Records
---
Amino acid sequence: MNIFTLNIVLAVAWAALTGNVTLSGLAVGFALGSAALYVTRPLFPGSDRYFKRVWLWSKLIVLFLYELVVSSVQVIWDVLTPQHKARPGIIAMPLDAKGEMEILLVTNLISLTPGTLSLDVTDDCNTLYIHAMFADDPDAIRAQLKGGMERWVIEAME
Amino acid sequence: MAEIVMAALVLLGGFFCFVAGLGVLRLPDVLIRMHASTKAGTLGSGLILAAVAVYFADTATITRAVATILFLLITAPVAAHMIGRAAFRSGVELWKTKIEDDAERKLNR
Amino acid sequence: MDILKTAVDISFVMVMLGVAFAFVRLIKGPSLPDRIVALDMMTVLIVSFCGLYAILSEDTAFVDVAIVLALVGFLATVALARFVERRVVRRDRAQAADAVAPTTGEGDV
């Protein structure tokens, strides 16, 4: 997080020096600052980890937005076609994510990804119950969520 | 150019909102309806607020629009989770739903 | 400017149709969770309505309205969901009490 502070200082410096203290000015400064930090990586121990985290978080955000669009299209398809093709089911999924923040992220992301809605977590935080819209193959859904969202969240949080 | 982007955002957002409303009316049971309201509704509002941010294009409005989008993205799943759990526990009728394992006992249905 | 205004007008119609559909679901029910989902959906749709109106009237104040509405709507949904859950707990307790009461009654006879 130290490198992150440095990056913000660089962004503020850029905005102040160009006399353009607006959101876009700060954003340009932040982008340029992170580029400069990326070039001078050998000078700052720990900045490799910072860039890896940034990469993982941006991957999480982009994949999440993509999944949100896919899931909306899927819902639209089921709403607009005359017959309901949904075969709903409630599935139990063991959780690998530890800690409240990780579980919160996983459950929220699962709610916004295609065909699944998190229902409840057991009191011991080990199992997540999911309502799936197309539950023909519960194991496939479990595998998809574990290898997808949950793994990305754990990677980004570590 | 920016105008066409905004028009596309507004139209897509409106369409998603429309379908979300239709889904809430048409789909067969509470939990399936929540799929429509959480996903399509959030995406529709998000797209329209993004169009607002592009249209005004000043710092204050962009910040507020982005804050609203983030807030919707955070709260929609939380609200859905709470209603879903309450609905499942109160024992509403579920349409052709396969319930796996011992979910009913574990969740105190 | 014309393309955007037309798009906003069309989008208005679609969002209002969405609200109307959700309102029909609010009236039809059949259970309390159904109604909460419909109410939640209407809040999210009116948030996007505020965004559209901000573009139409070129007044950023409606973005603030959207934020506040999103906040209050979320609180309302959470409160209603908790209410449903409480009611379930109370019902279970009442059933447990009913199950106990007849056996003691027989003991008296």
---
Amino acid sequence: MKFCNKYKKPSLFIVGNVSMFSLQLNMEINEKSNYTVYVYNSAEDALQELQSIQPKIVILDSFPGKGMNGQQAIIAIKSLLPEVYSIILSSNNDADTAIDLIKSGADSFIYKKENVIEEIVDEILSVNSNQFV
Amino acid sequence: MNILIIEDDLMLLKLMTYTFTEDGNKIFSANNGLEALEMVEDNQKMDLIICDIMMPVVSGVTFMSLFNQHPFKNTPIIVISALKDGEEFLKKHNIVFNHFIEKPFGISYLKHIVKGFNK
């Protein structure tokens, strides 16, 4: 991953179906933060690159695609990279779901509502300022 | 010409590679923006880049944003995408490119556009 070293930018993973949503999120993060964004269609694909790229943040859909669900994925991600900051996106605005995901190791839970991209970027920037100032 | 084609649809990538190789070009193909960045980082000078937008690992928008910091950043870029209103979308986000082609497109149309860059 030479270009990451060259640009000295921290990395961020978006895990979920590559879609208009992930593209818009990708563009907003490119514009408003210093992260290099990687997008994966499934948790399995992301896990293969996790240790080589060592992202600072993982944004994970609670149903990231075929294979593992969000809860299984977050457990696997945290076991490989415990220090990564993980944000779970869910269409289910249910406290029990959120608590289960937090217990599994998620650092944050965001309900996928209108203007969710803005909320995600704000959270990323707050993580960024806490970690890199 | 040296042409870098960045496309995750393997059938379309194969078709474009075949077409432009037959026309006497040297083709460098990448399945996503990360593979493409690694190719340009090896200081392989390209005369033209054909780039998809929605790709896994490193998307076309991230590729173009990072490539804009590269010494070869003036290399012309043709964007190919199924993104609705994609041209306006990219311009709104200040992504630098030279030509936008909406998918699906005929390969003869792409050949015609590429020919315009071969001067």
---
Amino acid sequence: MSLQRDLEALRAIPLFAKVEPARLKLLAFTSEHIDYEPGEIVCRQGEPGDAAYILLEGSADVLVDTPSGRVKVATLGKNEIVGEIAILCDVPRTATVVAATRLHTLKIAKDGFLNLVTQFPHVAVEIMSELAARLHATTQRLTQVSLRLAELESRRP
Amino acid sequence: MEPSIFRFILRYSWRQQLLILGLTILSFPPLYYSLELPKLIINRALGNLDGPWELFGWDLERVQYLFALCGLFLLLVLIGGLLKYILNVYAGIVAERMLRRLRYQLYEHVLRFPLPHFRKVSQGELVQMINAETEALGGFVGDAIAVPAFQGGTLLTILAFMFMQDPTLGLAAIALYPIQIYLIPKLQYQVNQLAKKRVRQVRYNAERISETCATIREIHSHGTARFELARFSDQLGTVFWIRFEIYKKKFMIKFLNNFIAQLGPFFFFSIGGWLVIHGDITLGALVAVVGAHKDLSAPWKELLTYYQSMYDVRVKYEQTVAQFAPSGLLPAERLTGEPTVVPAPPRRLRVAGVSLRDEAGEILLDEIHLDLALPTRLALVGPAGGGREELSLLLAGLLEPATGRVLVDDRAVHELSEPGRAALIAYLGGQAALVAGTIRDNLLYGLKRRPIRPAEVPAALRTARARNRREALASGNSADEIDADWVDWEAAGVRDPAERLPAMIRALSIARLVDDVYTLGLRGSLPAERADLASRILSARRAIRERLRSEERLARLVEPFDPERYNTNATLAENLLFGRPVGSVFDLDQLSAHPFVRSILAETGLVEELQTVGYRVAQTMVELFADLPPDHEYFRQFSFIAPEDLPEFKTILGRATIDRLDRLTKAERDRLLELPFKLVVARHRLGLIDERLQARILQARRRFRERLPASLVGAVAFFDPEHYNPAASVQENILFGKVAYGQAQAAQKVAAVLAAIVTEHGLKEAVIEIGLLAECGIGGARLSQPQRQKLAIAREILRRPPILILHEATALLDAGDRAAVRDAILEEFRGRTVVWSLEDETEAARFEHVVVVERGRILTGGRHEKLAAPGDEPAAAVEAAS
């Protein structure tokens, strides 16, 4: 049944990987399926975000507006998530996402997600540990980059 | 109003009261003779053994004589009874007329209250006084003369009879009356005081209830229900204890009355017996006197009750009337007076030394002077509470100045009749109120100042109507017929009936409400008198079907109703019924419980299957929702099972496995059967209704339609691609399908296609016309606050007053609409006068004149461009602000 499929798609997302299946199932049940035609805009850069989308079928292009025009920075495929930052904090969309093919998504609304987190605090803890791991990884990479940068600068005459 | 109830009764019903009195007097002779006859029967027919038995000069046999007398007695009783019947009915009518008159007068007084008085009175109390408390007064009016006359007369007749028999016995009968006359009023006075207290307390209760309704959101959001319950409980307790005291005293009075009445026979048998033994009176006379005394106690009791209620009612009337006569009551003729002038465009608006004070004597406005040549646009600015609102109310004639006058072309506005003033000046506040009824009713409300054309009445109803009219006049009520055509289209500048709808649509467009009304129209259903539109709606249906078919992208957005296919975007219940229920027989939420539905399910073998599906739904629901607190919003949004039912389903799941549902009771299986009826395949994605099951539901759908008994045919309007469905909305009829779940922005895209089709088929006006018939709810509760305000704006635009006064009239609109609506109003009133009290002075730029009102004075004023210059002298002032 398709609720089952949604559940598996959610579990494949690293952010949700550690959350109990029963909670994820509730999240899946309270989330909507949204289909897009090729070329339709899923979300627009600069607009406030209220949902994240998990791609169940098809692919989407991620476009960023730069001073020199719109640049495609990535293409997302099956079981990838887009816009997850929006359901964690209030920031405008950092990129425009456009359906590249006919796109089948699961829309995780911010309200629904926050509801889950406030109702079941251990979900929050699990997501927090995932985010902390990411932050740790990012920090490490940043340290490496800083070291490398210092190294490069010291070589300069 | 009359200062006392007796004055009220005499003024308005003295003729009827005289008639009552006449009827009463007429009823005494039969009464007297019906008392006399038993004596004759006993003494002459029974006691006298040797005649002569003579009646009206005829000699009769003894037995004949007996029966003749008995027959006569029967006849007299009958005549007496009939007279009393007529008297009672007539007194009832008189009472009801007076009650109607009283309520009407009180209501009329409410309309005449000066506006500031409404800050002091509570709505609940007014309701209580006009509805409940007058009831007792009305009852009394019918009795006011009749009871003392009839009962007093009866009493005197009986007493006269008794004294004729024997003065001693007569004296004995009334020996204790003086004690009663002395004692009872004293007790009664206490009861009345308590009753008054009770009345006041009940009024407080009414007030509390209406306040609860008004502040219900506050109560819920502050979580103060417990406090409110305690307060109400306390108030009810007070009523209880007052009643308790009343009962004790009231029944003490009753006890005394009964006891004294029972003392009568004691005297008769002792004194009367002694007299009979000594041969001073006959046995027949004693029996008659005892009989008469029994009859005596009834009128005596009635008289006492009358006396008790008279005192009560007198006080109640005076109290009520006092409440309805505040100072500053508007003269009655001002409410309904005809417009005295045809409002030629007014040339001059003058405020001459106007001052206003509040109830506490605080100065609200102090010596305001203004003089404006009309038409103009004047902005009033200044801090809230500085007198802007009061000044605008004064300009509109809704407040009466303490000193000074507001003059339009040298006529004081607050002295004009209200219909006349309304034709000249309109006022729109920040939170306009709507009346219960449709949007159309509200839109046209401002044009209903007098009946324009009498209602067309079928001949059969004319007599009933004439009767109603006569009766209304007999009670001093308004004889204007409410179903007459009240809408004065000419005042709105509309002469051709064909122009009415466009005029309304235009007003709605200016107020930016027309799209909302259009949407409401799509959701509404075709009224019977516009059945002609059905064929156009059907051709729109065909057109939209065509468009959906030709464009693949659109096709996904709507899943059409197809008799031969299961609609995956509709609930199972909708799929089974394949129509709209008419009335509540086939309520979609309780479809599984209907016996006919059950029989169809049984025939098609679906009962067990759907119970199994129900079991699985219950499993999922329990799994998903069991850990949520019962008040979690997910239950409302997503769950098939109410939180309070969840434990029950848990038990059901625990008692049986899915293959042994027979272990459950019938009631439990019924609960399971309810669940799948709400399933929407595309939305819930539980995969429980597969294609095989869908096919069987389609089979049940067909059978449902075939087997539907004649008695239920009217309870459902089936979907039929070729026919208009009267139970479905306009939108459903055009779309004839369900907007699909899970398509990006399906609703908006479908709405756009729909709007295009509706316009192409010339249906847009018709849909708006249907939208105009949408109910606004009590106080407009079904509309949002901005919608209510926009409707009020459209109302003023439609009625086209030469002068429009607004106070923060667009403050409540959404930010996006505010400026647009304000500009549209100003544009619409080009060439007429607008005075606008603005919450935001930056908006004043669009006005010719600006006046700053602060602390009840005009600080500065003048042409806007002068004012805008900084450091300008205040004296640059309004021209002629003498």
